[in-house]
Amino acid sequence: IGRATLGDQLRRHARTRPDKVAVVSYAPDRSETTYAQLDARANRYAHLLLGRGVGRGDVVAVMARNSVE
What we know:
Elements: H1 6-16, E1 21-25, E2 31-34, H2 35-51
Antiparallel strand pairs: 1-2
Helix pairs in contact: 1-2
């Protein structure tokens, strides 16, 4: 049995319900991000990492605020 990654689940939701709200942010004002928008943002970051030589199986640490930005 294969295991779905977080990226797999995001792609599936972006494909099946692209306009559904995935994330709601309340700082500084309320804003919504759809699954399609979140998937596009994740893909931009993935391509940025690939361009910097990060590949499948590499470990990447993320230190960020709890925020959409």
